[in-house]
Design brief:
Oligomer: single chain
Largest sheet: 5 strands, mixed
Helix content: 25-40%
Distance between the termini: 20 Å
Shape: globular
């Protein structure tokens, strides 16, 4: 992986991204600044959850090779909701 890229709303996702960056030694940047990375760069992506979607993920997937996705927020932990979130985010 070459970078940790995040999309934050309230700041919590940014905090988790920075912690991950400290632990891995990878550079950390918001999705808006990540445009300077070459297309197809391997990244870890963190985004906040709204209505079962990881915000910013679709944009990140179009530009980068997203190796890992982390979502920050709350969803109902039922199997049905998890399956719905995976489908909405196009995650296997």
């Amino acid at each position: 992986m070459n970078a940790v890229v995040y999309k934050s709303n309230t700041g919590f996702t940014e905090k988790y991204a920075r912690l991950l960056g400290e632990r891995t030694g990878l550079p950390v940047m918001p999705l808006e600044e990540a445009r300077r990375l070459p297309q197809g760069t391997d990244i870890v992506f963190l985004g906040w959850v709204m209505a079962g979607n990881v915000m910013g993920l679709k944009t990140a997937v179009r530009r980068f090779h997203v190796c890992v996705v982390c979502s920050v927020g709350m969803i109902d932990p039922s199997e049905e909701q998890i399956a719905s979130a995976r489908t909405a985010c196009a995650v296997a």
